[in-house]
Amino acid sequence: MTAFGQKYEEYRAHFEAYLQSACKAMAFEPSVLTESMRYSLLSGGKRVRPVLFFAALEAFGMPYRGEEGLAFALECIHTYSLIHDDLPAMDDDDMRRGRPSNHKVFGEANAILAGDALLSYAFDLMLREAGRSARHLAAAQTLSKAAGAEGMVAGQSADLLYTGKNGGERELAFIYQNKTGRLMAAPVAMAADLAGKKRGAAEAFGLALGTLFQLTDDILDEVGESGALGKSVGKDAAEDKLTAVKIYGLEGAKTRAEACAEQCLALLRDMGTGHGFLHDLVAHLLKRDR
Asked: How far apart are CA 267 and CA 261, in angstroms?
């Protein structure tokens, strides 16, 4: 395993252990609510956002151990978004992370409620963390804003709005920046908040990283393998989604992904931090196959 792989696994395993313990402590009634929340939270995945949060904290000279509460809130928000995204009324996907989607196991109504509960629980976690210091309050506000009508939800809405319609580059950029970018920028900006650093370059890097992630996601939906991705492939074209592949073609999307990776590295240099892991993360996301 490479040095990057070892460090990624350190961050991922640390968060996973915390997540397992936190999920074990959940005891909401009725029990089906707890079961459905746990099902999606513990379904594996790369844990990119908590890993990015931990890595950014260390890049800013801060310890990541002790900040698991905000990482958990971040993962709760991401997980709720996946549950709702898979619903028949949205992207209608039966598989997530190699397992049946939440609504295929617990039914659509319970899946909606599991997502609602995870979002509400994330805000409970953020409020607890906000009481620790003014910097924690700022970090919680950063995550709150990224999740809602000025962030991820706006991107989801635009994604649905332009499905089957002739959107262009401007509309695609809006979807990328909000649907994926805001929740990738949040962990980097949150780390800057906690470190007392200016967040401009950190947020710009996170948004570019989110664009890179979504570019490769669009490409993988065209050429990836369902087994590796843990979800259906070919759905973007079948549903006439507004994607980079639709606008630029497959090769054009690949070219833009490479250019976006270069932009990420330039923005990372502007952050002026110890960024070896984050540098390698950019290359990892560019070349990912899942």
From this structure: 10
Residues whose CB is less than 8 angstroms from the CB of residue 71 and which lie 6 or more positions away in sequence, other chains included: 15, 18, 49, 50, 53, 54, 187
Burial class (CB in 10 A: 0-12, 13-18, 19+), 197: buried
Task: Pull the structure tokens for residue 101.
Answer: 């989607």
Whole-angstrom CA distances from 42 to 18, 19, 99, 224 are 11, 8, 11, 24
Q: What is the pLDDT of residue 242?
A: 93
CA–CA distance, 57 with 139 (Å, rounded to integer)? 12
User: Which stretches of the chain drop beneath a pLDDT of 50?
Assistant: none
Separation CA 118–CA 269 (nearest Å): 35
Query: Residue 65 carries which side chain, given as an amino acid letter?
Result: R
The secondary structure element, H or E, covering residue 137 is helix 134-147
pLDDT of residue 226: 61
Distances (CA, A) of 83 to 63, 115, 162, 186, 215: 31, 6, 21, 20, 21
Residue with tokens 């000279």: 61
What residue spans define the domains of the chain?
Answer: 3-287
Tokens in use for 148?
A: 């809602």
Q: Residue 274 — φ and ψ, nearest 5°?
A: -70, 110
* pLDDT digit string, tens, across residues 11-38: 999 999 999 999 999 999 999 999 999 9
Q: Which CATH superfamily is domain 3-287 in?
A: Farnesyl Diphosphate Synthase (1.10.600.10)
